[in-house]
Amino acid sequence: MKKLYIAITAAAVFSFGKIQAQDLIPGNVTADYDFTTAVLSNISFELKNIGSITTFDAVTCELYLVDIGSKEYLLGSADSDEFGLAAGATENLSIADIDLDNISGLTTGSYYLRLDVDVSDVEEEDNETNNSKTYTDSKIDFESLAGLKEQLAVNRSLKVFPNPVMGNQFQIQLNNTTDQTTFVLSDVQGKVLHGIPFYQQNQTLVIEVSEIPAGIYFYELIQGNTRYQGKIAKY
To answer: Do residue 113 and residue 24 come from a single domain?
Structure first.
């Protein structure tokens, strides 16, 4: 698991003859990213008021993934304290863990985090140009695992037992499927020995193999154009 820590610092700015108002900026952003699961977790960030006046209302902050071009993907948002943020103070905010495979339209590639504060422009700030920060040292390499996760989910719902087969039959149990599914058993030459359709959820089928010699066989679970493969032995 890769630990991400991104920091930005800023100093208060004063103009002669002018009292600075509230000025909200993004602060530190921290997160854990697990490339193997594509999950971004323990996400927290800071909202800073470097102005001289307390904010009056809650403001919304949004965290994005952005690529090196112009695409952006909203990860989540958090609202600051409705009682306002004192001058010179920092508020810590967080959002829930995110499975990047669930972000619509996100494709394999490299991305960075961007934090936008006061996205609804609730506060009239002294400086409106520093409400967004892209953290270029927060590189996240994303590879879509949607297909693999789908396959693992199907594999968990599929039970072929006993394996190895010591007698003349084995059973197939498939749970939690609503798609039309076919179970196919083949020998090592690819000859189909059985093709069994599933018509309902939680169905258990008994496959008779008394006429099949001992050896290694392969099975496929077919759902539309998707195929999941496994191996079974008969002794």
So the answer is: yes
Please tell me the pTM assigned to this model: 0.55
Statement to judge: residues 46 and 102 lie in one domain:
yes
| pLDDT by 10s per residue, the chain, length 235 | 554 544 333 333 333 333 346 788 999 999 998 876 788 999 999 999 888 888 878 889 999 999 877 789 999 899 888 777 888 899 999 999 998 888 888 888 889 999 998 877 777 776 778 889 899 888 888 877 655 555 555 555 677 888 888 889 998 877 666 667 788 899 988 899 988 887 656 677 888 899 899 888 888 878 777 677 788 888 7
- Pairing status of strand 158-161 against strand 98-99: unpaired
Helices (H), the chain: 146-157
**How do beta strands 72-79 and 98-99 pair?**
unpaired
If you search the block for the tokens 């920091």, which residue do you land on? 7
**Total domain count for the chain?**
2
The residue out of 92, 108, 142 marking a domain boundary is 142
Tokens encoding 195: 């093709």
Give φ, ψ of 153 to 5 degrees.
-65, -40
Q: Which domain holds residue 50?
A: 2-142
Compute the residue count for the chain: 235
Question: Which runs of consecutive H residues, i.e. helices, occur in 108-223?
Answer: 146-157
